[in-house]
Structure formats: C-alpha cells, structure tokens
Amino acid sequence: xxxxxxxxxxxxxxxxxxxxxxCTDACVLGALAELTAAPRILDIGTGTGLLALxxxxxxxxxxxxxxxxxxxxxxxxAANVARSPWSGRVRVQALSLxxxxxxxxxxxxxxxxxxxxxxxxxxxxxxxxxxxxxxxPDTLSFPDLARFAADFLMPxxxxxxxxxxxxxxxFERAAAVAGLYxxxxxxxxxxxxxxxxxxxxRFGRISVPTEQRVLPLHEASSEAYTAEFRQLLQNxxxxx
Length: 240
Hints:
This protein has one domain: 3-Layer(aba) Sandwich (Rossmann fold), CATH 3.40.50. 31% of the residues lie in helices and 25% in strands. The protein has eight helices and ten strands. The chain has helices spanning 24-32, 50-58, 71-82, 97-102, 127-133, 142-152, 165-178, 227-233, and strands spanning 5-7, 12-14, 40-44, 63-67, 90-93, 108-113, 153-163, 181-189, 196-204, 211-216. It is globular, with a radius of gyration of 17 Å. The two termini are 23 Å apart. It catalyses: adenosine(37) in tRNA1(Val) + S-adenosyl-L-methionine = N(6)-methyladenosine(37) in tRNA1(Val) + S-adenosyl-L-homocysteine + H(+). Belongs to the methyltransferase superfamily. tRNA (adenine-N(6)-)-methyltransferase family.
C-alpha cells in the first residue's frame, strides 16, 4: 500500500485522498521541464499538486495554476499547496479542462500534463483511479488537451507531456492537428539499453527536428540511481 504522504526536501505531499500517488515518472517530469523562464505555468490534472509545487520550487517568481477534475484530489492538492512555502503563487481549481477553458485564463508560457493514458486496458474498479489513468469519453482526451494548449499558450509557449511511447505517438498526431509539434523528447528507461518506459516530450508551435536523449533511472547492474537521475532530482528527494 502506498504511503499516505511523500516528503520532499522543501515540501510534503499528502496523498490519501488522491487516486494517483507520487511516482518517479511525475517527479522526473517536474524536474526536467523547461520552467525557469516561464512567468505563467499551468499544471493540467494536478492530482496531489506535485507538479505545481515542483514548478514553484524551480521558478521563484512564476504564477502557477493547477486544475483537477476530481474534487477530493483538488482539495488535497490545495491543502498541500497551503502548507508549502509557495502558497501565494500557486492556485488550485476543481474544474474540468473544459470548465477551466470557459473561464478564459490568460495565456501560459508553459503547460505541464501527465494525462490519462491507458486507452485500451481494462478500467480500474476504483472510479477515481480510472478517471486519473484512463482516457474515456467524459474525461480528458488527447485532442482536448492539444486543442486547449494551442488555444492558451503564448506564441512562444511550450507544452510538456509525459506518456508511454505508444500513447505518445497518438498524442503527437493530435498535437499536430492542433498546430503543436515535438521539439524535444526524453526517453526514460530502467537501465541503459532497456525498453523505453515513458517519453517526456516538449511541444511548440514551430515544426523543427526533434532533439532526443535517453534517461536511464538505474545503473546497468544495480538498483543504484544513475548520476544523471541523481543530479536531476537532488533538489527534491531527501535521499539524494
């Protein structure tokens, strides 16, 4: 059973009310996205509030919006934000993406999202976990996310998305229809040379050759974290 909280160096995530708990994937996304020069940041489907708080830690002046469809998760994310050092710069709203779009927010410099991605697997019996992990007609879809980003990014704004490789292919097609194109791709894997686990892809409005690199999480012959992973997460993980 997952812990009811996860303690980082500068903030704590309570997560007993959230279907999706803190995971390595999301931590890498929050540490890797290019956020340092982004005055306005949006975290779509914030869950525990993890990405919003990582963004606040990395960018000392940004205003950060976070939206979450599931009311209990949104309430817990808001509580996590309130206990953090950055409560004045992060706002959590319990809204669907369509409801949030209807408020006509000001454009963003960077949008982050770890969207639902189990498009063909069996839904979980836990309804909240299903909403968090599975694309369904009444929740966030890839075309919805891509269209929203195209509508609410600044002209030079960026969207960074985390997905398994097959699902990223689907998302890239939806993004291209909306006028967004991959500019950088980080391929996460367990060890050097092992099967890709996740793609973290950055999108912009101009179609350019996609820069690509591999991020192994563990050394080839042990469970030790790689030097690159340790450097990436050293400002967040207590054990690094």
